[in-house]
């Protein structure tokens, strides 16, 4: 990473921290802590367990994008997905670092590098497509919610429109060429270290996209992952004794997810998530202090899941080093 890039990330992080301080300061940190405490230790443990379970469809998406890998390796791909997220959330090198560490964990299990890289690219492509569908659904739902209760009649149309978007996106992947072109660009951008195996990678990519059922399955599992993650926020709020409709939470979370993706240069989107909750949540009838409490609960969950994950990863790395020296 160049010096300019480091300075840029540092400045972006400082701006994010300033935004977080503003969000909590303008709302009242004591009020936020009071709202956070309502979830209780039992509720927080349940939320963490649910969050861990929501990684299963994400692992299934990555596995589906790897033709030839047996279903018995679901746990392995799910672990790699959890590791990707933990590194991206807690370590300073953000998304790229998560990708590197996640793929390395699969390589250590003897999976061919070209298959890992190709499946990763297909997984990322279908994840982007699934997020697009989820975001468009959330924005359409937001319009109906903010228009008032009379807009409830529009929900069947919104759901139907979402179904059409899914069908269009599936057609996009069935067409292969545009999806493959996008996948090749992603491979060139995120996997520069794979340049030596690029020819084999592209061949594996083409073979993967030729298996349309696998690609559609990866897209479906990723979409399920987005929905499950958003539903987790509703579950957390429910355990905090906040009564808000699932539709409102899905719409709000789609906005938060989008802003976090845009702010990929800021580690863990620090400040972006908090400011977005403080500004957007009241539009859905959710007090700012409650929304920021939800943000704190999410941050705590990232630590509770991420830190043990990183410690296990380090133990695996140390074991691999020792094994290599004994050969």
Automatic annotation (TrEMBL):
Transmembrane segments annotated in the record for this chain: 39-64, 129-147, 153-174, 186-209, 215-237, 249-270, 276-297
Cellular component annotations (GO), alphabetically ordered: plasma membrane
Compartments in which it is found: Cell membrane
Record's bilayer topology term: Multi-pass membrane protein
One Pfam short name: LPG_synthase_TM
UniProt keyword annotations, A-Z: Cell membrane, Membrane, Transmembrane, Transmembrane helix
InterPro entries reported in the protein's UniProt record: L-PG_synthase/AglD
Protein's recorded name: Flippase-like domain-containing protein
């Amino acid at each position: 990473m160049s010096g300019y890039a480091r300075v840029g990330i540092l400045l972006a992080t400082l701006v994010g921290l300033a935004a977080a301080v503003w969000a909590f300061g303008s709302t009242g940190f004591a009020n936020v802590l009071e709202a956070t405490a309502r979830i209780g230790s039992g509720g927080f443990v349940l939320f963490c367990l649910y969050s861990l379970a929501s990684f299963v469809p994400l692992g299934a998406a990555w596995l589906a994008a790897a033709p030839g890998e047996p279903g018995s390796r679901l746990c392995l791909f799910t672990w790699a997905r959890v590791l990707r997220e933990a590194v991206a959330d807690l370590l300073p090198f953000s998304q790229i670092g998560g990708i590197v560490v996640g793929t390395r964990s699969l390589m250590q299990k003897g999976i061919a590098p070209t298959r890992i890289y190709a499946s990763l690219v297909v997984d990322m492509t279908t994840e982007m497509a699934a997020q697009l569908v989820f975001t468009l659904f959330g924005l359409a739902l937001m319009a109906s919610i903010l228009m008032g209760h009379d807009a409830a009649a529009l929900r069947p149309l919104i759901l139907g429109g979402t179904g059409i978007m899914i069908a269009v996106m599936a057609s996009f992947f069935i067409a292969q060429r545009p999806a493959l072109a996008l996948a090749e660009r992603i491979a060139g951008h995120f996997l520069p270290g794979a340049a030596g195996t690029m020819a084999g990678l592209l061949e594996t990519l083409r073979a993967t996209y030729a298996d349309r059922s696998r690609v559609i399955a990866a897209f479906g599992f990723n979409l399920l992952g987005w929905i499950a993650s958003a539903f987790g926020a509703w579950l957390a709020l429910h355990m905090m004794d906040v009564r808000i409709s699932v539709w409102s939470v899905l719409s709000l979370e789609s906005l938060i997810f989008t802003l976090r993706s845009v702010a990929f240069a800021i580690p863990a989107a620090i400040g972006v998530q908090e400011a977005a909750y403080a500004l957007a949540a009241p539009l859905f009838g959710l007090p700012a202090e409650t929304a920021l409490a939800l943000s704190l609960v999410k941050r705590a969950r990232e630590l509770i899941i991420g830190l043990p994950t990183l410690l296990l990863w380090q133990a695996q790395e140390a074991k691999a080093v020792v094994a290599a020296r004994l050969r």
